[in-house]
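Notebook B, p. 112. Complex prediction, attempt 2.
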Amino acid sequence: MRECKLVILGTGTARPTPRRGCSAAWLQFGGDAVLFDCGEGTQLKVLEAGLRTSKLQAICVTHFHGDHVNGLPGFIGTMGLNGHRSPVRLVGPRGLRKWLAVLRELSILRPAFRLDIAEENDGLVAQWDDFSIEACPLDHRVPTGGYLFREHDLPGRFDVERARALGVPAGPDFGRLQRGESVTLPSGQVVAPEQVLGPTRRGRRIAWITDTRPSDRVIEFVRGADLLVHEATYLHALVDSAYERGHTTVQQAAEIAAAAEVKQLVLTHISPKHTRNRELLDEARPIFEAVRVAEDGAEFSVEVPA
Amino acid sequence: MRECKLVILGTGTARPTPRRGCSAAWLQFGGDAVLFDCGEGTQLKVLEAGLRTSKLQAICVTHFHGDHVNGLPGFIGTMGLNGHRSPVRLVGPRGLRKWLAVLRELSILRPAFRLDIAEENDGLVAQWDDFSIEACPLDHRVPTGGYLFREHDLPGRFDVERARALGVPAGPDFGRLQRGESVTLPSGQVVAPEQVLGPTRRGRRIAWITDTRPSDRVIEFVRGADLLVHEATYLHALVDSAYERGHTTVQQAAEIAAAAEVKQLVLTHISPKHTRNRELLDEARPIFEAVRVAEDGAEFSVEVPA
């Protein structure tokens, strides 16, 4: 079973501070990786966290505010200097191509590998053999998309004893059944995969939702996720500022997690006004118990449900 | 007398490392400041060094390679968030306006203050009451300019005893003479400033020269400078790589300092191949004794010559 974890590299807001850098999160899924957002300083945080970009499959940026994208040119440049040559999917708002074209023209960034660009923030935006990335429009001051990593559903557990009891010989037929194919025994009897496989196990799901006002659409998008990382810029005392600036409060993020019945909530994009995590947790926990506050470099592992 | 110091914020090459960040240097001249280059991470280095951007007068970028400019959008954005509203002179290669226009269009950066842009790398590029910035084309792989901070020459010291002996009454006439004006005494006698002022004192000069191959033009540009910060990417054993990539070796930087008869040489833009400063100093000192190797955050003060 692939290891699946999210390393939140930057948990701050518009201005990086020594404690909270600009937004970025690294999803490690076995050997593969996906980067969500790439604020200034992300490349150094990746280096310091000991993460390896050689199998980075995609970079998904939420929106064109500097604290979410200013690290991207340097990140891509350094990957090239480190010898990366395989294509990387780059997902983000309309204008990505234009930005990269100017960076290339001025020689600020000449990518050493192909960027497979998708200017989309709705629906399926990237897909591989065993996972995919979906996007959902958010409600911020500029076009913004949240992202959902979805591991593909896993086949049910193979019941070896049951297969043997049905007369299936150990060998290639076991593999066929595990892949969901029926097999015909020498006796002519047909064994269907449902007879020897447990229920399909749902793949893991991790959501990266920032920046946004509270959104009903997000609740449906992240429903049942194993891990919801949601922005929570301010405590609810500042709900008016939050709304005006296109952000969510801690209380609202907890309400979304509860309504969406996610398994874990992690708060990120924390204003430097709020220095004590205890205050954030005190506001969130009465509404949603399984909540944590991200710190730069914090790792969150997600296991396959039993 | 104004304090004058250079804080070298980033001393590394193309890829930032925890030890050596991307290129940037902060010149503090009394209350005023000038930033040379703005690699990724500069805004955080400025914050950590306790420097204040409120009287930043100019940002001068040498060339459009990411490690010299990728921090600029975030730097300008954060200055605005911090309330900066007065104009800042922005000097750099042709294309600055185009880059900023795209950043603005995409809303990655909407500067909160006026940027007074000069796409120039030769001659006088910025001027204030008591200092100016000159540029000199360098020899790199893309259009590049080195910079020279010049404090305006200072009037000679005012000889109060001599003025009194000549019959000048203490008061406004002292000020006129100090500003270089003649005064006429009640007796009708004219006292010229040369009679009461010592020799003009040359203003301080600090040069920021990176990235470049060794250049005779630089020698003339920085001649006699109080402080020459020169790139020295590699030890001379790697002179062929240095030339090919448009860089200078430690030995060559020392030769330039000696030929230009500068007072101090500081080596910067040090390849991560070279981790021991001792090796760099051993190569430079036989050629130019007053040499140091910059580390991120190192400060170099320049006093007015006696």
